[in-house]
């Protein structure tokens, strides 16, 4: 079982720079670390996920589309997080 996984939540309104920040962080990821990024897309089309697509080793991307995690996507978030952790 996975324990003590360092976790960071990046949030903010549309246009705040969340995707740009994540892109910069991914570009600076230490080679020996494994990172997982779970993207909550408000719409059905994954714009941020397309912008963050990477082929770098040690980076796993997942996406939960179609609404806010706190209001609509609780169960899809749990499923997406489980899949992402297995992939990472």
Automatic annotation (TrEMBL):
Pfam families noted in UniProt: cobW
A single Gene Ontology CC term: cytoplasm
Limits of the CobW/HypB/UreG nucleotide-binding domain: 6-87
Secretion signal, residue range per the UniProt entry: none
InterPro entries listed in its UniProt record: CobW/HypB/UreG_nucleotide-bd (IPR003495), P-loop_NTPase (IPR027417), Zinc-reg_GTPase_activator (IPR051316)
PANTHER family hit by this protein: COBW-RELATED (PTHR13748), ZINC CHAPERONE YEIR (PTHR13748:SF46)
Protein name: Cobalamin synthesis protein/P47K family protein
């Amino acid at each position: 079982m996975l324990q003590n996984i360092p976790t960071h939540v990046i949030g903010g309104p549309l246009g705040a720079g969340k995707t740009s920040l994540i892109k910069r962080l991914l570009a600076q990821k230490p080679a020996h670390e494994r990172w997982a990024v779970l993207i909550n897309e408000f719409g059905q089309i994954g714009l941020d996920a397309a912008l963050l697509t990477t082929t770098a080793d040690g980076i796993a991307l997942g996406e939960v589309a179609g609404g806010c995690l706190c209001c609509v996507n609780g169960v899809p978030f749990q499923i997406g997080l489980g899949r992402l952790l297995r992939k990472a």
